[in-house]
Design goal:
Layout: H1 30-34, H2 37-40, H3 45-64, E1 70-75, E2 81-85, H4 102-108, H5 131-137, E3 139-148, E4 151-158, E5 161-162, E6 167-171, E7 176-183, H6 195-208, E8 213-218, E9 225-229, H7 235-243, E10 254-260, E11 263-271, E12 278-283, E13 286-287, H8 293-312, H9 325-329, E14 332-339, H10 356-376, H11 378-407, E15 432-437, H12 438-448, E16 454-459, H13 471-474, H14 478-487, E17 504-508, H15 513-529, H16 531-535, E18 539-542, E19 547-551, E20 554-558, H17 561-571, E21 576-579, H18 588-596, E22 603-605, H19 611-622, H20 626-636
Parallel strand pairs: 1-8, 12-14, 15-16, 15-17, 17-18
Antiparallel strand pairs: 1-2, 2-7, 3-4, 3-7, 4-5, 4-6, 8-9, 10-11, 11-14, 12-13, 18-22, 19-20, 19-21
Helix pairs in contact: 3-5, 3-6, 8-10, 10-11, 12-18
């Protein structure tokens, strides 16, 4: 082998050439197919559903502009989606720049649409202009049907390529657009639309678009499932829906819908007996989970106006501190929706609104309207202020109790709990913590584990229900304290996710009612006090087998009853079935083979797709009020499986 000196230039060969021919230009919709995640976030479940949102957004834009009154979404058996509206219809005449039909231009060209200028849309959600064209690019097949100007027009596409020119197929006295598409299996590894996810999104859009009928039909099952939404009350109706089983402390909900310097502001709120705060914010009907200027304006107006009223009416003395933002948001269920000409979203996912004028508009109109509301409805004002004052008192008491607990050194200076069988690795990225139920299961797990990177922490019995307990009481609980120390993150305002000692925290409980209860208590603890662990995708639930089926020397571990039926049918007679009700019933070898071996185990990753719904369910199932829990159990009793008797 001949070595070159450092200052010698490499030979000019084909492998090292870098000329104009090496610069690739992706034309048309090629960039979308090349990098779909840049346009729809991912090719997973969220990205798949984003295709529907993009098309629905266009129909909603027509509704917000005052031209559409009916929107229909259909799921067909072969993964086709049909979205129809009775708006003006996408233009079909020849576009002056592209020399092609405006319909083909809109569906086959990035950043082409009626929302970048002109007067077609005063407000719109899909301002990036990549909506339907991206759906076209990521669909194996799409068809656009337009009724406009007395005619009916059609064009079909395959993976973004038009199959023929836009053609007129008849006359029509209607107007509107119908888009049918089929997601491309080359792009999406799994195509399975989530009925509830779509239903929740459409319900939300109907609340945000007053007076528009939204229909949803799922034809994938044996019989079609139909839902229809129509709300005249706007956000006022939405807040009533969000409140659900919570008990409002107000007789009247606060609601306003006003225009401020060409920005449409709609907001509604109510206070409930609950301690949690739920705030939803939207810009041009697009949910902004990270808030933004419009939510900041609402919060500022709420805090300042309630403080002013509390002092004016003598609830707060001059020497007392103001109510904090946290005080006035405890028990609050609120929604803020604005519509403006040129929203500035952060990224294609539009999670946060950045327009400073949005804050000014919301803060101004909410301050004025809330002042009027508090002066006009004194009983509601009194209930709200008393709720705020109670929250402030609880905050100060909790702070004092927490300081006392930490001052006593409950978590400081403690070594790792003695019952923790830690792993030898100090690298969190490869380390796993199994939280198991009881010493018996803990013993089996300790014998089964890979000592290098698997740690075992057995917990005795059912831990404290933190939904009903303050942090000072919680930290005096021995089992919770052991878990906090083992995780290494501390807790409350001292929590630090960077100090987490394991990047896989696995809840492993028995496959019975008690195991499910313990798992729920642990999930409540993580949701309330260690939520970043869930948000970082570090929390998992182990799936131990339900059965061991043996015939002769052949045996199978079975994880579902459906799978059991298939295996029993295939094996025929002479089989032995063992039902595992506890982890302690398995020896270490069986535990390793079925539940702990990374090559063969099944883990469910805990996610928070809908934090609001999760919060509501934890309140129902784990909270102080019995009646909502009783109603929930009665409503879902027929769906119960594997009930121990």
């Amino acid at each position: 082998m001949v070595r070159k000196k450092a200052d010698e230039k490499p030979e000019n060969n084909n492998q090292n050439s870098y000329t104009a021919k090496d610069i690739y230009v992706l034309e048309g919709l090629e960039p979308v197919r090349k990098h779909p995640g840049m346009y729809i976030g991912s090719t997973g479940v969220d990205g798949l559903h984003h295709l529907i949102w993009e098309v629905v957004d266009n129909s909603i834009d027509e509704a917000m502009a005052g031209f559409a009154r009916n929107i229909k979404i259909e799921l067909l058996k072969d993964n086709k989606v049909v979205i129809t509206d009775d708006g003006r219809g996408i233009p079909v005449d020849i576009h002056h720049q592209t020399k092609k039909s405006a319909l083909e231009t809109a569906l086959c060209t990035l950043h082409a649409g009626g929302k970048f200028g002109g007067q077609s849309y005063k407000v719109a959600g899909g301002l990036h202009g990549v909506g339907v064209s991206v759906v076209n690019a990521l669909s194996s097949w799409m068809k656009a049907e337009v009724n406009k100007d007395g005619g009916s027009y059609i064009q079909e596409y395959e993976r973004g390529e038009p199959q023929y020119k836009v053609k007129k197929v008849g006359k029509s006295d209607k107007t509107g657009t119908k888009i049918t598409f089929q997601p491309d299996p080359q792009i999406f590894p799994k195509i399975d639309f989530d009925f509830k996810k779509i239903l929740d999104h459409l319900r939300q859009q109907a609340y945000l678009t007053k007076g528009v009928k939204v229909e949803f039909v799922d034809e994938r099952g044996k019989a079609p499932v139909y839902y229809g939404f129509y709300f005249d009350g706007g956000l006022n109706s939405y807040i009533r829906y969000l409140t659900g089983v919570d008990q409002p402390i107000q007789d009247r909900f606060f609601y306003l819908h006003r225009n401020y310097e060409n920005i449409d502001v709609e907001t509604a709120f109510v206070y409930t007996q609950d301690a949690e705060c739920r705030e939803m914010s939207f810009a041009n009907n697009i949910y902004t989970p990270d808030g933004g200027m419009h939510l900041t304006g609402f919060r500022s107006a709420l805090t300042r106006t309630l403080n002013d009223h509390a002092r004016k009416d003598g609830y707060l003395k001059d020497s007392e501190d103001n109510l904090t933002g946290d005080d006035v948001r405890e028990g609050l269920v609120a929604a803020v929706s604005i519509k403006l000409r040129e929203p500035q979203f952060e990224g294609q996912t539009k999670a946060r609104l950045g327009n400073p004028e949005a804050r000014t508009a919301v803060e101004t109109v909410v301050s004025e309207a809330l002042k009027e509301f508090l002066e006009r409805y004194s009983s509601d004002a009194r209930a709200i202020i008393e709720k705020n004052l109670l929250a402030a008192k609880a905050r100060k008491a909790a702070k004092a109790a927490k300081e006392t607990v930490f001052r006593k050194g409950v978590l400081e200076g403690l070594t790792l709990p003695g019952k923790l069988a830690d792993c030898s690795s100090c690298n969190p990225e490869e380390s796993e913590l199994f939280i198991v139920e009881g010493d018996s299961a803990g013993g089996s797990c300790k014998g089964a584990r890979d000592r290098k990177n698997q740690a075992i922490l057995p917990l005795k019995g059912k831990i404290l229900n933190v939904e009903k307990s303050r942090i000072d009481k919680m930290l005096l609980n021995k089992e919770i304290r052991s878990l906090v120390v083992a995780l290494g993150t501390a807790i409350s305002d001292k929590f630090d996710i960077s100090k987490l000692r394991y990047h896989k925290v696995i809840l492993m409980t028995d496959a019975d009612v008690d195991g499910a209860h313990i798992r729920t208590l642990l999930l409540t603890l993580f949701y309330r006090y260690f939520r970043p662990i869930i948000e970082k995708s570090y929390l998992y639930i182990a799936q131990p087998p339900l059965f061991r089926i043996q015939k002769g020397k052949e045996f199978h571990y079975v994880y579902t009853e459906q799978e059991q039926g298939k295996i029993l049918k295939s094996l025929g007679d002479g089989v032995t079935v063992q039902r595992y009700k506890g982890l302690g019933e398995m020896n270490p070898t069986q535990l390793w083979e079925t539940t702990m071996d990374p090559a063969r185990r099944v883990l469910k990753q805990v996610t928070i797709e809908d934090a609001g719904e999760a919060d509501r369910l934890f309140d129902i199932l784990m909270g102080e009020v019995v009646e909502p829990r009783k109603n929930f159990i009665q409503a879902h009793a027929t769906a119960v499986k594997n009930l121990d008797v």
